[in-house]
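Hey, sorry to bother you again with one of my protein questions. There's a protein on my desk that I can't quite get my head around. No rush at all, and the record is pasted right below.
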Amino acid sequence: MDKVLGRLGVESLSQMQLDTSDAVLHTDRDIVVLSPTGSGKTLAYLLPLVERIDPAQDSVQAIVLVPGRELALQSAGVLKDLGSGLRTMALYGGRPTMDEHRRIREVKPQIVFATPGRLNDHLTKENFPVNDVQWLVIDEFDKCLAMGFRDEMSEVLSRLPQNIRHILLSATDAEEIPQFVNLGKTKRINYIDETAQISSRVNIYKVKSPDKDKLETVSKLLRHIGEKSSVVFLNYRESVERAADYLRQQGFAISMFHGGLDQKMREDALYKFSNGSANVLVCTDLASRGLDIPDIENIIHYHLPETEDAYVHRVGRTARWDKEGRTFFVLGPGESIPSYVEEDQADYPLPQQLPAPAQPRMTTLYIGKGKKDKISKGDIVGFLCKKGGITVDDIGKIDVKERYSYVAIVREKLNTVLALTRGEKIKGIKTIVESVK
């Protein structure tokens, strides 16, 4: 266990995680876990769950339902990082179900992470058997069980065995858990402080913008913040694109994220931000749920959150685990902090003299070969060190996809690597190496 936690950069488990693990391993009850955003709920259920899965059995034994594809991908990534050897897949919309079915036959996953609609597609077509499913996890069950998902959720549960165990997890309590979830005797693990709206480790600041258009003020704030990882929230896709274009022209290394982007663009954006190649993420509230990116220090509200729930989930992106964080309300003429914000706020004046936009230490490479080409992380490290003229210390996060790979490298080495790897082969195969813009 210590070796696994060390690989994940976690020193020890929290009491919530220990309680959840004990309930999974040593009771026969269904489990409801309520714990704040950023407290490690994914790890809380996955660590004990992998002990309950039979690695010799080539069938799906656990299904994890999530409200969106980003959380499906991210949770599947956490499972892979555990190094358990269990096979997994993330199933979600935006790509042909037939392609996923083909991969299911190849991979033979034992745990799947799926959105409700896409899982129904597979179950309707009987793309994998469910008779060996023993566990159903519903992550962010408050959102999964909201009115928009209820029909899909009801359909999913009607197709699964009735004697399975349930694990429900959320940062906020649902008003009710519908009868179709079919909970039996339940162990409730509640670590939500009903009196605390957000973590006490988050400091709240007001930044005054002299103009209704706040982009110049946001630019100044980001320049003052420096290289620290920051998320800028806006309420509309068009506003996100406008703000991203403006900040990019100002010289910031940004990622842009909203629901109108295609799947690969969204994955590229999150990958660049999570691996340190971009230090500013400009996004809608789509990024406020389910994204577990460590070390986000600053949450900036260009547009005020439309609801208290939106505010809580936005701010939940920072001060994760035991870290500290800051949130900034950028207020135009006539604007004030919403009345639902209970904590004290301080003014945050900006100095007249500001540095140029800080550049992140890393940048991201695209390598046009992946798992289909039998390429591993070790192959990529060897290729970049031997052909690209860099050392292991210059290489950061590596993510090997089916047909391509992403690699974070030290920014100042980018041009050298691109020049030296042009036309070179990895494992005897000629490949493309490009910078991810």
Observations:
- The chain has three domains: 2-190, 202-347, 362-435.
- The chain has a mean pLDDT of 90.
- DSSP finds 14 helices and 20 strands in the chain.
